[in-house]
Amino acid sequence: MFRRIHCTVGVGPAPTPEFYFPPSLWSYIQHLTLMDDCFHLTHGRDQLDVPNMRLRPPSHIPHLYVCEEFLGPVVQRTLRQMPLLTKLSLRTCLGVVHGPYWTFLRFALSLPHLREFEMVGLTFCPVVLPDEPFDLDIEGGTCAPLTVFRYEAILTRGRKYAISVEKDALALVLEKTHHSLVTLALPSEPAPISLMARLDWPNLRELRLRGMRWSAPRTPLVILFANMPKLRSLALELRIPDDGDPEAVWPPGLPRSTKFPWPELEHLTVANPHPDDELFAHLPPGLRTLALPSCPRECVKDWLWACENPYCLLAHTFHLLQASRLLGVLKRCSASGLRHLEIEYGTDEREHDLLRFLAAAFPRLSSLSIYRYRGSRETVVCVEDVVRPLASLEGLQALTLHPDFETRPTRIVNIMRGGRLIYPTDALERFANILEGAALRIARTLDKSLERVSLWTPSDGEGPFSANFSVFRDDCTNDVRIQREADTPHEREDVWGM
């Protein structure tokens, strides 16, 4: 029962070893999560909205962006006394840019039994101090042979927060671990892409890159990552600069000798797909999951830049394929055995053609996610008309839908809450009733295999939710009823990107 321990740090005075948990438990711990909650101690000095290097850190902190919870010998001594520790997770849910300094990371990555390292929300090595050796050649050992290295940063932090030392630190880690890694997840901005293209990855099964598309190197991704032949899951969730355009993973015009480099691929995500991408014509027959989302999603723009710009005063470009262009992409797809499909598009006169085609082309789908956006704000959404082309999917068990109802609540300024933009409570309650009726009509329209309907809904939290409904059918009368289940928050994957 003590193999997995979750501990919040930064909520009081500097921790002692006993603060983390009793020493009698140390020898049992295999997975340790440290949740950084020291935001109140930084007094907002390193918030994403106002990072100000002219402000001075407290005297006991060597640099503004160094997280004090990982300073000093206490945390190192504590970790050293955990002989079974195989997974270390460092997390925060705050909009800050600080993180552990190199001395701590260097120590943690050398723990002999460590196999999984995870950092979420914090910055991986924001600074190297003058007296720190910037290497991974540690006395008495070296970097542990990690199988999982997962570093996830806030999606909207952008290139301005990707400092050069962060990329250099990640390069040191990957140079030591590329032979052993099975799973690698990185924010794209500090990822050492050129180095990754030069290394060999004999065991890598999962790669996830999320963030802004890099400006260099310009090598097509189908060539850039051809050195990862064992990939089974590839997620390229790359934002496009506001003044840029989508780019193909496999652009037209490559030599005819170019081959699909990931024959074992089972799960593929390509955000902001290019309509002429040759990749889709070469998908392997074993592909089971295909996701073609926008990144970021337009339906979460009310929350996306909240930590930087709470009133959304800055304009951002959202790249969205029209239904007719997406139809062209799917017609090129060679993976008829798909079980899971996610699409996102703007509606036009070809929407029903798109949905009819996917039902015919991918008859084995068990789950389908559709994010659609009306072309005109005056358009009235009839969910039966939207989902009727999908009625032939006899194995469809779960449908996730952003229907873009015209009755969606709008935010208003709340003076009592400091001028914050909020959704009125009564409007959210009325919308919940609308969603329940829509879920029932969807369940009655689709095949009897349907077990779950999830409909997008806004919230006053840090992101939108899915309103989930279980579907029940009476075998004798064929009557359909639904039951509201717990909502699913979307802030992690859609808003924060971590």
Protein described:
There is one protein chain. The protein is an alpha/beta fold and 498 residues long. The chain has a domain at 1-204. The chain has 13 helices and 19 strands. It has helices spanning 17-20, 39-42, 73-80, 102-108, 164-177, 193-198, 221-224, 301-304, 323-332, 351-361, 383-387, 425-445, 491-496; strands at residues 4-9, 31-36, 87-91, 116-120, 148-152, 183-187, 206-212, 233-239, 267-270, 289-292, 340-346, 367-373, 398-402, 412-414, 420-422, 452-457, 465-473, 480-484, 488-489. A hairpin with a 5-residue loop joins strand 14 and strand 15 (420-422). Helix 9 packs parallel to helix 10 (351-361).
Shape: globular
What is the end-to-end distance?
27 Å
Radius of gyration: 24 Å
Low-confidence stretches: 40-46
Identify the quaternary structure here. Answer: single chain
Kindly state the mean pLDDT as a whole number? 86
Query: Helix fraction?
Result: 10-25%
- Number of DSSP strands? 19
Number of helices: 13
Describe the structure in brief.
InterPro entries: LRR_dom_sf. By secondary structure, the protein is α/β, with parallel strands linked by helices.
What features would you highlight for this structure?
498 residues, alpha/beta, 17-stranded mixed β-sheet, 13 helices, 19 strands, 21% helix
Write the layout of secondary structure elements.
Elements: E1 4-9, H1 17-20, E2 31-36, H2 39-42, H3 73-80, E3 87-91, H4 102-108, E4 116-120, E5 148-152, H5 164-177, E6 183-187, H6 193-198, E7 206-212, H7 221-224, E8 233-239, E9 267-270, E10 289-292, H8 301-304, H9 323-332, E11 340-346, H10 351-361, E12 367-373, H11 383-387, E13 398-402, E14 412-414, E15 420-422, H12 425-445, E16 452-457, E17 465-473, E18 480-484, E19 488-489, H13 491-496
Parallel strand pairs: 1-2, 2-3, 3-4, 4-5, 5-6, 6-7, 7-8, 8-9, 9-10, 10-11, 11-12, 12-13, 13-16
Antiparallel strand pairs: 14-15, 16-17, 17-18, 17-19
Helix pairs in contact: 9-10
